[in-house]
């Protein structure tokens, strides 16, 4: 009887692991997306600065 009491606990543990794994993957994807967006904004800012400097010369 003790062995059958462990199965529900294992099933819940597997489901929680899957849910936390999915949340971790979503978190890493969102953080990478935000970093890439920030880098894109920085590059665009540099391009605009260079265009402004080349136009004034």
Please supply descriptive tags for the structure shown above:
57 residues; mainly alpha
Explain what this protein looks like in three dimensions:
With 57 residues, the chain is mostly helical. It has 1 helix and no strands. The longest helix is centred in the middle third of the chain and has 55 residues. The protein is rod-shaped, with a radius of gyration of 25 Å.
Question: What's a concise summary of this model?
Answer:
The protein is an all-alpha fold. The protein is built from 1 helix and no strands.
Elements, N to C (H/E): H
User: Which class do the helix and strand fractions yield?
Assistant: mainly alpha
Mean pLDDT, rounded to whole units?
A: 90
Shape estimate: rod-shaped
The stretches of 5 or more residues where confidence is low (pLDDT under 50) are none
- Total beta strands: 0
Helix content: over 70%
What about the largest sheet?
none
Beta fraction: under 5%
Our count of helices gives 1
Measured between the Cα atoms of the first and last residue, the distance is 86 Å
Q: How much is the radius of gyration in Å?
A: 25 Å
Topology, please?
Elements: H1 2-56
């Amino acid at each position: 009887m003790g062995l059958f009491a462990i199965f529900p606990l294992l099933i819940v543990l597997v489901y929680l692991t899957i849910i936390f794994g999915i949340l971790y993957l979503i978190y890493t994807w969102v953080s990478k997306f935000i970093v890439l967006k920030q880098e894109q904004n920085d590059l665009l800012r540099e391009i605009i600065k260079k265009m402004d400097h080349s136009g004034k010369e």
